[in-house]
Automatic annotation (TrEMBL):
It comes from Nonomuraea rubra. This is Uncharacterized protein. Keywords: Membrane, Transmembrane, Transmembrane helix. Residues 187-201 have a biased composition (Basic and acidic residues). The chain crosses the membrane at residues 36-52. Residues 176-201 are annotated as: Disordered.
Length: 201
C-alpha cells in the first residue's frame, strides 16, 4: 500500500497535470471572499471621502478614518488585527498545500475551509472534506501544513461522529494550552454539543 504522503511517488507530477484543472470563477471568489469584501469597503470609503472633500466637508475624512486607525493605536487593537491577518494567511496557505499535494479530488477540488478563528496559540480551521479525502491525509501532511503556515506544528482532530469534518490547529506561539476538545467538538465525546452540528444536520 502506498503511503498517504507520497513524497517519492514517480507518478505524482503526471497525475497533477492530467487530473487537476484550474479552479473556476466561483471557487476563486469564495477563496478570496474576505479580501474582496475588505477591498470593496476600502473603495467605498475612498469614494465617500473624496466626495465629501470635494464638497468642502473636511470633517468627513476624520470621522471615517477614526474607527479604522484608532484600534491600531492600542495594543489590544493591534493584537486583534495581527491575529486575524494570520487567519487569512493560514487559510490561503492550507488551500495551497491541498492543491500542491494529493489532498484534492481528481477534479482538482480541495477541502472546503468553512471558517478559521484565532486561538491562544495560533489559529483553528474548521474544514469540510471532499470525497476521497480523510483526516488521516491531513495528519500525513502535517509537516507541510506547518511549514506553509510558518508555524511550529499543527494538530488535526476528526469529528467523532462525522468523518467529513476536521479541525486543524495551527500552533505558532508557545505551547498549545487548549483543552483537547476546546472549541472543536464540545468535550470530544459522542453526543456532546459541537459547533458544526448546525451544518451537518
Amino acid at each position: 500500500m502506498l503511503p498517504r504522503n507520497p513524497r517519492h511517488n514517480p507518478y505524482a507530477e503526471a497525475e497533477r497535470l492530467l487530473l487537476a484543472p484550474a479552479p473556476g470563477l466561483v471557487t476563486r471568489l469564495w477563496r478570496w471572499r474576505t479580501e474582496i469584501v475588505l477591498l470593496m469597503l476600502a473603495a467605498g470609503t475612498a469614494v465617500v471621502i473624496a466626495t465629501a472633500v470635494g464638497r468642502g466637508m473636511w470633517w468627513a475624512p476624520v470621522a471615517l478614518a477614526g474607527p479604522v486607525f484608532v484600534p491600531a493605536t492600542v495594543p489590544a487593537g493591534r493584537k486583534w488585527i495581527l491575529r486575524h491577518f494570520w487567519c487569512l494567511f493560514s487559510r490561503h496557505r492550507i488551500q495551497r498545500v491541498c492543491a500542491e499535494t494529493s489532498m484534492h479530488t481528481r477534479e482538482g477540488r480541495i477541502p472546503l475551509i468553512l471558517w478559521i478563528t484565532p486561538t491562544g496559540s495560533g489559529e483553528r480551521a474548521f474544514i469540510l472534506l471532499r470525497a476521497g479525502i480523510c483526516a488521516d491525509d491531513f495528519e500525513a501532511f502535517g509537516a507541510e501544513i506547518a511549514a506553509a503556515c510558518c508555524a511550529a506544528s499543527v494538530r488535526v482532530r476528526r469529528h467523532p461522529d462525522r468523518a467529513q469534518f476536521v479541525t486543524v490547529d495551527i500552533v505558532r506561539r508557545g505551547a498549545e494550552d487548549d483543552q483537547p476538545g476546546a472549541g472543536t467538538w464540545g468535550d470530544g465525546e459522542h453526543g456532546g454539543k459541537r459547533p458544526l452540528e448546525r451544518l451537518a444536520g
